[in-house]
Amino acid sequence: DTAAKRETDTVGTDELTQKVKRARVDDENGDDGVEKDPESENILSEFKTSAVLSDSAREKTIFIHGKLGDQEAVVILEKTPIREDTLAELFTGSKLKLEMKNDIYSTYQLLAPAKFNEIKTTVVCPATEKHVKKYQRQESSLVEETGEDYKSITLPYIQKQSFSVQWVHNILDKKAETERIVFEDPDPDVGFLLLPDFKWDQKQVDDLYLIAIVNQRDIKSLRDLTSEHLPLLQNIFQKGKEAILQRYSLAASKLRVYLHYQPSYYHLHVHFTKLGYQAPGCGVERAHLLADVIQNLQSDPEYYKTRTLYFPLRAEDGLLGQFKEAGRL
Ligand code: GTA
User: Which catalysed reactions does the entry list for this protein (predicted)?
Assistant: First the structure.
């Protein structure tokens, strides 16, 4: 059936991502650049670019739309941070080409060994039209959503139109990313899985990014939370912080722990990022600190059902169209 097919497709896509990741690790480990692992073939050699969706010289990222075989795909390339533990080898093992010298100032092109030139690569394939729009540079508008607007505009829209959460179910069902799990509480009500977000390459703690995915499958977002969920939220907060301290020696005071509203994926999850790291979506218009969420529900059990919530929507987001049609913008 369709659900089963979609599941196979998603697992297939995950394998694709794993292949890309393995290729990256192999490049790093093998100095001769010869591929020994037959699974590390470069699937992107077949990629045909159709458009650059967005790019940033500052972030050193580029989001590309194109085709992999006959399937639509989005490829995200991101240059990775320079790590302190690689500096000695970077200085001794590179070639240095002088560009200019003026008094005490000089600039060079440092030609580093291949293993330092990795580019973190994310592939979404097959990508839907919604994925293409998500990664396209667009202007945003701030939307004001009352509890009523949620019921009459947002909820019907997300029930029809949101991204598949198959990847989340694959994680919870241990069909994908099992080896990446950092912590697990199997309790069906207050339990969750903590694992690295796929935006984090886990090479340095400076841009640490993990997500906690709740075991309960029917909590869509912040809007569904009531005081009934306090034990769940407190459990994630407490055990998530402990697990990160244990695994990465990063104290709770160095973490930004928050939920997105609106999220992209409507299965409740909590973002754990390093405080100093400006993760995409950590601005005040989208991120809600878990500590505040807990306090708000303690003082008003129906806080998130009744309050007006504010969030940005991109120009091409169908939900924005719904708010406009309803005369709410
Ligand atoms: N471990 O398969 C997955 C997976 N997927 C499909 C999404 N996530 C996953 N994690 C694992 N395995 O933090 C992560 C996402 C995100 C979280 C969902 O789950 O990385 P959300 O529902 O609040 O959605 O959180 P959000 O924040 O809109 O999604 P996302 O993808 O982070 O997009 C926000 C912006 O971040 C994008 O518009 C883009 O500007 C930027 N971005 C997205 N992906 C990348 C990337 N790979 N590299 C650089 N920037 C990126």
Answer: a 5'-end (N(7)-methyl 5'-triphosphoguanosine)-ribonucleoside in mRNA + H2O = N(7)-methyl-GMP + a 5'-end diphospho-ribonucleoside in mRNA + 2 H(+)
